[in-house]
Request: fold
Amino acid sequence: MHVAANVRYKVGELDLVMRDGATLVFIEVRSRRSLGFGGAAGSIDHRKQLRLRRAANRYLLERFGQQSWPACRFDVVAFEAGTANWIRAAFDAS
Reply:
């Protein structure tokens, strides 16, 4: 279920926020014309992951405050050479 799109903070941007049952899913969408240089999924390096985690933390604080947060995960939708690849739990939420 779609929750939000293009959520922007100074620390980073969340392309999509969705629900998968009780889990809140933060989705990064990437596109590359070719698979060279690691492709779309490979472009999400440690620094980008950190920015996504910081933006997700900001989002969670705004929506839930200090109360218990829902389970979360980070997915990636990588469009490479005209093919979509959905990667569930692409990297750790911590």
